Amino acid sequence: MSETMTEIELEYAATDELNDDERYRIFADRRRRLTLAVLDERTTPIDLQELASQVVARGEGSEADDAGLTEAAIELHHKHLPMMDALGVLEYDPAERCVEP
């Protein structure tokens, strides 16, 4: 299922406090949109590997192989999660590799 920027924006309340530039920056990347869609369905923290698995499954419509999961986890860990954490959309603890919606 493909979710548009507007659908996710309406569902994910943490983006309400962002200015337009920050909001567009977050939603410009498909992997970040998928991450927010996964987190929107959660109320408890999620480990990086599980988040990567769910993001890849949503993006590809099926389970990813080990290489695909590793690539997604690395990209989330080094690029997407720190950026979204800095903007206050989620909380990411890189040492624990844990994300809180």
UniProtKB/TrEMBL annotation:
Pfam families: DUF7344 (PF24035)
Protein name per the record: DUF7344 domain-containing protein
Residue span(s) of domain DUF7344: 25-100
